[in-house]
Amino acid sequence: MNKKMPKQVRIKIIVDLLMTVLLMLLMAFELIGREEHEWLGVGMFAAFVVHHILNRKWTAHLLKGKYPPFRIAQTALVFLVLICMISSMVSGIVMSRYVFDFLPIQGGWGWARTLHMLAAYWGFVLMSLHLGLHWNMMMGMAGRAAAAPSLRRDWLLRAIGILIAGYGVFAFFRRQIGAYMLLQIAFAFFDFEEPLILFFADYLAVMGLFVWIGHYLARALRAAGKSTDRKKQMHG
Q: Is 96 helix (H, G, I), strand (E, B) or coil?
C-alpha cells in the first residue's frame, strides 16, 4: 500500500476490504458452518460500526449543503444498508444458537428467518452498489499508487469489468439471488458437494456486476448534477 497515503485513508481501505471478505464468507452461510457464520456476523457488524466511526465527518454533514442527484443516491444507499445491517443483526441474535445463546429469547424464529434472508441478500446487493458509487475514488487512489498512467491499462480494466459484469448476470440467475430478494424462495439452499471456490467465484462476479452498475450509475448521476447546475447558471 502506498506509504504516502494518509494513515486514516489506509485504515479505511483495510476496514472496507475486511468487510468485503466478511460479506463473501457470510453469504456462504452453512457451507462454512453455523457457529462460524454467527461469529463472522458479529465481526461484520463490528467492522460496520468502525467504518461509520471513520466516516463520521460525512455523517456530521448530512444536514448541510446541497443535495445533487449523486448525493441523494449515496445517502439513500447508506440508510438502506444501515437498515439491512441492523435487521440482519437483530434477526441473527433471535436465531442465535451459539454466540447469543445465553440471552433469554424464546420464539420469533419465523419472522427472524424471513427478515434475515431479506437483509442478507438485499444487503449484499446494496453494499455492492455502494462500493460501485465510490469506485472512481478507489481507482483514483490505485492510480496514484501506480508508477504512471496507462491508457492501455485503463482499457484492459474496462474490458475485465465488462466480462465480470457479464458473468455476474449469469451467476445472479444461477444462484437465484433475485428470487431470494423477493422471497420467492423461502429457504436458502446450498450444494455441500460444490467446491467453495466456485461458490465464491459466482458471488464475487455478482458483486462485480453491481459494483459495475453502481460505478456507471454514479457517472450518470454526476453528469445529471452538472447539467442541472449549468441550466441554473444559464437561467440565473
A: coil
Question: Rounded CA gap, 20 and 203, in Å?
Answer: 11
Quick one: which of 84, 176, 164, 170 has its CA closest to 132?
Answer: 164
Angle, alpha carbons 151-167-125 (nearest 5°):
95
The C-alpha atoms of residue 101 and residue 36 are separated, in whole angstroms, by 14
Contact between 211 and 164 (Cβ < 8 Å) = no
Block residue for cell numbers 468485503: 20
Give me the helices (H) in 134-190, please.
135-145, 151-174, 177-181
Cα 173 to chain centroid distance, Å, stands at 19
pTM over 0.85: yes
Lookup: cell for 138: 478507489
**Cα(14)–Cα(28) distance, integer angstroms:** 22
Nearest to residue 212, comparing CAs of 167, 150, 145, 149? 167
Cβ-contact 41, 95 below 8 angstroms: no
Helix intervals (H) in the chain:
7-28, 34-54, 56-60, 69-95, 109-133, 135-145, 151-174, 177-181, 196-235
Render pLDDT for 34-64 as a digit per residue (tens, 0 to 9).
999 999 999 999 999 999 999 899 889 999 9
Rounded Cα distance, 22 and 46, in Å: 11
Where is 105: in which H helix or E strand?
none
**Chain CA centroid to CA 185, Å:** 22
* pLDDT tens digits for range 74-128: 999 999 999 999 999 999 999 999 999 999 998 899 999 999 999 999 999 999 9
Rounded Cα distance, 48 and 12, in Å:
11
